[in-house]
Amino acid sequence: MTTHIEKDPHSGTETTGHVWDGLRELNTPLPKWWLYTWLACIVWAFGLMLLYPSLPYFTGYWHGLLGYSTRTEVMQDVAKIAGQRALVMDKVAAASFEQIRATPALLAEAQTAGRTSFANNCQPCHGAGGGGRPGYPALAAGAWLWGGRLEDIQQTLQHGIRSGAEGARDSQMPRFGVDGVLKPEEIVQVASFVMTLYGTPRREASAETVAAGAALFADNCAACHGEKGQGNREFGAPALASRTHLYGDSFEIVQGQITNPHMGVMPAWGGKLDPATIKSLAIYVHDLGGGE
Ligand code: HEC
Ligand code: HEC
Question: Which of 81, 165, 177, 270 could be joined to 158 by an S-S link, Cβ 3.0–4.6 Å?
Fold first, then answer.
């Protein structure tokens, strides 16, 4: 390589004097406007790095002179929404069910709160959409144990069922087998009769067995379950003359229940959820399809 500055005869531009294999390099510097824009960008970038969170350290990072953080911004937004929501939920707490129903904005908020709270607290036992499963009543079915008006549901939620909480709904079906109130063959008889109530008679049961069961039913069960097995909400006693079953419709399940009743327990929510949420849940459950 030789260094020899001269003018290029074709373009008239000065060369840099660099020559490789006989090729000479022309000296065409960057346009000034380009160069200054580029330098300005570098200054701008350093400025942003100083002002905003940028460089990582070994532990942590440079927070920037402005102290800006997307997290604080989100937290502020969340706090704002929570504040607005709290205002609406206060109104839900203060309003009667009729007032909530009559105010679309309140109703919409209550329905949303109810749906969310149901998914979080109730779904594990009652199933999605309150579909229910053995031992956990289907809330959408309209076959209420304790009552399906908004106020009934609110009371059930507030205090629970056999929860031990004050004001809880409570009743005990006698343990006819375990406590020897009925003999095993009598339990077979009355269970056979119960199965006729919901229209699935037991094949092995003779007419005498069913008749004996009917008499036992009138003496031992009708007080709670009703003369015709229609149920009684005062005791949360399910309708037996119904195709909706709390525990099941097989002979073994009915026999088991009479021998040693399950006595389902539903927790009290009064201590865990605020009044507005409980009201919202009552509205949500009521709207599942079985509300009265
Ligand atoms: C740990 C399981 C469990 C959880 C959680 C639970 N429940 Fe229950 N719930 C039950 C059981 C069991 C019964 C039936 C008790 C009985 O035999 O009377 C019941 C009964 C009810 C009833 C009465 C139905 C009727 O026919 O009268 C309502 C209403 C109800 N639950 C709503 C809810 C709501 C709303 C939630 C959520 C806040 C919830 N439950 C959470 C177990 C649960
Ligand atoms: C003191 C009231 C009471 C008496 C008396 C009573 N029961 Fe019950 N029974 C209940 C209650 C409450 C339940 C539901 C509670 C639970 O076990 O979770 C129930 C549930 C049942 C069920 C389950 C229903 C289902 O849908 O799965 C059957 C079956 C039943 N009883 C049969 C009887 C028979 C038969 C007798 C008489 C021999 C009887 N009961 C007497 C209160 C009573």
Answer: 270
